Amino acid sequence: MNSGRIYKLQHFIPWTRKKIYYLIVISAIPTILYYFFELKWLAIPWVPVALVGTATAFIAGFRNTQTYNRLWEARQIWGAIVNNSRTWGILVKDMVRDTEVGAEKSLHRDLIYRHFAWLTALRFQLRESRGWENVKTKSYNREYLNYYKVPEWEGSLAEELQNYVTADELEYILKKKNKAAQILALQSARLRDLNQQGKINDLNYVEMQALLKELYDQQGKNERIKNFPYPRQFASINVMFVYLLSIVLPLGFLSEFAKISANCVWFTIPISVIVGWVFFTLEQVGESSENPFEGSANDVPITSMSRAIEIDLRDMLGEENLPEPLVANTNNILM
Amino acid sequence: MNSGRIYKLQHFIPWTRKKIYYLIVISAIPTILYYFFELKWLAIPWVPVALVGTATAFIAGFRNTQTYNRLWEARQIWGAIVNNSRTWGILVKDMVRDTEVGAEKSLHRDLIYRHFAWLTALRFQLRESRGWENVKTKSYNREYLNYYKVPEWEGSLAEELQNYVTADELEYILKKKNKAAQILALQSARLRDLNQQGKINDLNYVEMQALLKELYDQQGKNERIKNFPYPRQFASINVMFVYLLSIVLPLGFLSEFAKISANCVWFTIPISVIVGWVFFTLEQVGESSENPFEGSANDVPITSMSRAIEIDLRDMLGEENLPEPLVANTNNILM
Amino acid sequence: MNSGRIYKLQHFIPWTRKKIYYLIVISAIPTILYYFFELKWLAIPWVPVALVGTATAFIAGFRNTQTYNRLWEARQIWGAIVNNSRTWGILVKDMVRDTEVGAEKSLHRDLIYRHFAWLTALRFQLRESRGWENVKTKSYNREYLNYYKVPEWEGSLAEELQNYVTADELEYILKKKNKAAQILALQSARLRDLNQQGKINDLNYVEMQALLKELYDQQGKNERIKNFPYPRQFASINVMFVYLLSIVLPLGFLSEFAKISANCVWFTIPISVIVGWVFFTLEQVGESSENPFEGSANDVPITSMSRAIEIDLRDMLGEENLPEPLVANTNNILM
Amino acid sequence: MNSGRIYKLQHFIPWTRKKIYYLIVISAIPTILYYFFELKWLAIPWVPVALVGTATAFIAGFRNTQTYNRLWEARQIWGAIVNNSRTWGILVKDMVRDTEVGAEKSLHRDLIYRHFAWLTALRFQLRESRGWENVKTKSYNREYLNYYKVPEWEGSLAEELQNYVTADELEYILKKKNKAAQILALQSARLRDLNQQGKINDLNYVEMQALLKELYDQQGKNERIKNFPYPRQFASINVMFVYLLSIVLPLGFLSEFAKISANCVWFTIPISVIVGWVFFTLEQVGESSENPFEGSANDVPITSMSRAIEIDLRDMLGEENLPEPLVANTNNILM
Amino acid sequence: MNSGRIYKLQHFIPWTRKKIYYLIVISAIPTILYYFFELKWLAIPWVPVALVGTATAFIAGFRNTQTYNRLWEARQIWGAIVNNSRTWGILVKDMVRDTEVGAEKSLHRDLIYRHFAWLTALRFQLRESRGWENVKTKSYNREYLNYYKVPEWEGSLAEELQNYVTADELEYILKKKNKAAQILALQSARLRDLNQQGKINDLNYVEMQALLKELYDQQGKNERIKNFPYPRQFASINVMFVYLLSIVLPLGFLSEFAKISANCVWFTIPISVIVGWVFFTLEQVGESSENPFEGSANDVPITSMSRAIEIDLRDMLGEENLPEPLVANTNNILM
């Protein structure tokens, strides 16, 4: 997530420069052919271009709406994870009861730290790569990766997990297919034990189990956004229509500028670039917001949110020397 | 679901080629009549065409929005099925309790495998055909069926179910009208037995029963999307307006090109085809995303999701040799 | 609900023919005045017409969106009724317990058949007529009523109810104002008795009562859509703007065609009819989808859904000779 | 709420006549200056007007969408109040139990009649006036107030409440700030007493208390819509843009009509009025639907809905001589 | 929140005056160059400007929709806080029971006053500043800050909290990172004590704990809106496109006015300013509604809502001399 005021034009222009080069070429070709080779028929009337432009604007608008919804829903899910984590904190602290204070504290710590393990496994899973994601495959996004680091690509899951669970549990977890899902199953098994030992009474047990259900819901919602891309058939027509528009735009402008004077047709190039750039930028911004967990600068900041949860719950446990919150780097990127 | 980056133009063009042929014919007719037979009145002013174009763009946009919503909701429902299946796993494992470990394990396996039976019956029901679906009736979709297989059309429900339930239960289920609904009723009857035997206490029994309620909700939501198409009156005006637009488009272009020169009217044909193709493609993409369970390449991948649930739950049961996850085929189609 | 692929043009044209006659007249008048009486000032510039057209397209789009939402919500509510009915089935079967098998079966049947009574009363109430509904007041809709039958207008509530409740209860229900609401109150009273007799334990009693609450919610949501029309102020501007557009359209076309040649002004009539027909059709389709329980061909198919519920629950009770599901008639209309 | 088919044009025209007068003046001024004083520069090109028109149409569309959402949400909340009221009825009747039939009936009546008191206090609070409401401040709305009566402005809260609560309670309620909120607190106190007396068991007590929570939710949602207007910054730009459009419209039409002939510029006036009227009507309809509890003809009919609830619950109590439902008056207005 | 009827034009114009100055300059430059230096090529055809205008209008519309949604959701969350606060009131009063009346009253007061502490800490946290907020960084917003005061910027958290909690608790709270979250944890710890002392029975304890969960949900939703801005990539293209439009607008108008006469090109300046102002105003209104807790005049009025909750709950406790509600200041601003 960018936590600054705005992306600077000097970032946007390089980020979109390949599209600009393309637009220069695609508009120069018909202009040159028209001017030097007198292919006058290249200048088509404006009206078909306007109709394609309207349809493209609609499609781009539709995509941006859905893309925004995906991003916002992803943030809502992580908001819900924050809320449920805090609730997990108070349920553990006040419903898991032992007559011996030290033993009780240790039970609380165990259940809360295993929750951190779940958060860790979840964010590593979410930052894996998918075939339709763009951050590593598009050159302009790869370039931008120089401006920030993705913590889950730098660190190791096993190493981070060992802060939160015992060695035995760690080994067990690492053998499982969906690690996050199985960590929650471990929590559930632990609750059962505590219930059978009488350390959680039957009513409270049901409440705590219900919270695990909600955590499964949030995990599953994350996986839905991660694993189900913006439908490729819609993404495809988006790309096709923008390119089609970029081809017909200069043809339409040719006829408009030719009305003024023969030399004016050269304005076709800058004007096509400007108008085309608007549509390509819309498209590229949409594309790069589509997958809110792909490791892009526009991701939901799940690493720092997980850290914030850890701080809150350890503060609740009364621990000293809490970890520092993660803040945006010098490029205003917060992961 | 297409799990690649994009549909290639070389797939789109053949897939939409019948519309292109049609557009060539429908725009060639008035052009020929105009040019050779001097039916000058065929060239109508642009403004009515623009108005019809705007209305059609709106209608197409509206349809795409609703179509996308249907697809996304279908995926949400299956996401919820994933979540509830995992919750079913932990509830069964930790709320169904027996003093004898082996007996307990067998109870758990029974309840979890019957859940797989429900998933199987549900996806077979969802992949049946309906009168308004397009995948088998439209020639371009039938052609595309060569690129992938629909597992529910290849396999047999009875055969797959016998992996999950006893022969007696299988016979019972196969006699029922709505098999999936009756499998959940069997689960409910089983829970009652276990509750009466004291293997599920009263509070936990209520929780597990509540989960069955949620599974009925998800099944019913699936059936709603399956059995209630995008309303045919809206679909109908969509088709009619696009065809109407394709008829008036060349008439409008005729007058625009005639302004340039007499020979230029021949450009009416390629430009009508390009602009018309944009609208027909929008329409055809909308149509082929409308029914997310019809067996099309854009379906929600319910077969692979069911498999993923099976893997997770059997992993939770501690089974070895788990089945492999289903992956996209070479054409990037995941069912 | 139309369960076919599409409404045929040969249905749409007769259904909208009055609007077509009107459009012929309204565009012929200014054309005749212009041509024969030389009222040249009737030909106004195109730009005001375009602006009115845009505003009308927006308003029509807005209405169609809301209309679709009403229809879709109505279907969602009935989907929820299906789900809750099945849940009612399993709760009754597994939570109402009697040591004597025969007595238990009879209790189950009683509670489940009274649920059918509720469904019946509800659908009769929903198919009553309201002042703003269109199916009986608009001639084109009355004509269309020949193509299908509305079961609730053919049958009698009392007759159908007697299949599900005792004569005493029937008499009691028929005296009540809101029969469906009072049938649920009867269910509630019955649950209380069974709870006091110990046939439903306290925890299960609360669950079953909670389901009655949900059924009240669904009934009330149905009544909301039934009793609160698409706001008449919005419906009114819709109608006014479409008629206003139909008046200014030919005036704008006159000037456009007059630019070509004097005789060409006669094209004003067919073109006005075509463009006007697009807007009137949008409006008429919106109008006839507005009230999803009015007995129109586009209704939510509540009769067949009620029948499907009856089949499922009687199948669950283990009954033989289940009723047949209702299917679409030869005109593809399913009620 | 208007329960008729449509607002007649003969109501709309007087209701919007001030805007029409204004439009005549604002378009006559530049026309006169142009024609008689030859201020030719007043005729500006059409394109800036089109751009302002598009932006205004968007803004008007946005407002109507949000306004509609406010109205529809208000109706949903009241639908939920209806549903919860019926549920309150069955919970009271079947969960509040006394061994003595007469005493039990009296307990039921007490709790249900106090619910009517809450409904009454709530609707009086909702029909108070707010600074941003339009029904009393705009002359065209004041005129329209002759066509119907707002019951909460005619009656007295104290008088109506005494039908439902004892004199002591009435005095207590009238001293409170938020009367509706404190009536629910009274209900809660009553439930506590009954729980402590053993007339509501612990499980049922929790359910009934949960319903009070829902009633607080619905009351609060009502207050949200009542107390938080459509944001004034958005409302403000709406008004400003429509007036700006009304000023530039005639300037743009002047140049279009001047192209035809000098005398034709007089058509600027009627055409500006027609097009301007479309936008002002959109704006005025939006404005008068914005606040669904202000006492306008487009209000949610909360008085008649409260009456309907009273009828249903008294019918449930088995009372005779139920009150009559409220119906729309001769002008089709239902409050 | 502005609680008046409308923002006056005399407020809007100064508030947007910098944009007006900018527009004068940006349109004067090409006009001067065109007129005096005869750079005729500066006059570009209208069509590219129209296309950029359409895309910008779409983007501005999209932003306003999302901005409105953020504001409205913020208000919904605070509505839910109001509702849950009242429910907290009745749960405390009727579920926390002590045989001794005075002791019970004191327990109730303690739990309800600590709730006020939570509200106070929450609103102080929400009114802190973030890097992307505009109220303090944009000169036009800083100017507007003279018209009202933000109570959380004037007061001190510690001082206000001491009205609600003991000195010990105050010290504990002030040491914590997320004070509001830890106050709820204190409530939870208190409930546990009361449950263990038998002053809240087990069933009621679960209900009260569930309400704390909901309060965490609302706090977290607030933090989501506070900490996750309208995505900066979308905000950025908004700003860029509006500025781009403001640059090309006068170029397009130049050619339109030049068609009329050479001197008419001077109209480019006022018309560019008017049309550009519409788009800049849309943008600026969107920007200043984006962050509903930043201390702007358009904020959700969380200070007065917190006061209203305090009044209601103290009224419920039966306290005399309740505080006065906060009302809008003379500039109609309610915080």
From TrEMBL, chains A, B, C, D, E:
<keyword id="KW-0813">Transport</keyword>
<keyword id="KW-0472">Membrane</keyword>
<comment type="similarity">
    <text>Belongs to the anion channel-forming bestrophin (TC 1.A.46) family.</text>
</comment>
<keyword id="KW-0406">Ion transport</keyword>
<dbReference type="Pfam" id="PF25539">
    <property type="entry name" value="Bestrophin_2"/>
</dbReference>
<protein>
    <submittedName>
        <fullName>Bestrophin family protein</fullName>
    </submittedName>
</protein>
<keyword id="KW-1133">Transmembrane helix</keyword>
<feature type="transmembrane region" description="Helical">
    <location>
        <begin position="43"/>
        <end position="62"/>
    </location>
</feature>
<dbReference type="InterPro" id="IPR044669">
    <property type="entry name" value="YneE/VCCN1/2-like"/>
</dbReference>
<feature type="transmembrane region" description="Helical">
    <location>
        <begin position="234"/>
        <end position="254"/>
    </location>
</feature>
<keyword id="KW-1003">Cell membrane</keyword>
<feature type="transmembrane region" description="Helical">
    <location>
        <begin position="20"/>
        <end position="37"/>
    </location>
</feature>
<keyword id="KW-0812">Transmembrane</keyword>
<feature type="transmembrane region" description="Helical">
    <location>
        <begin position="260"/>
        <end position="280"/>
    </location>
</feature>
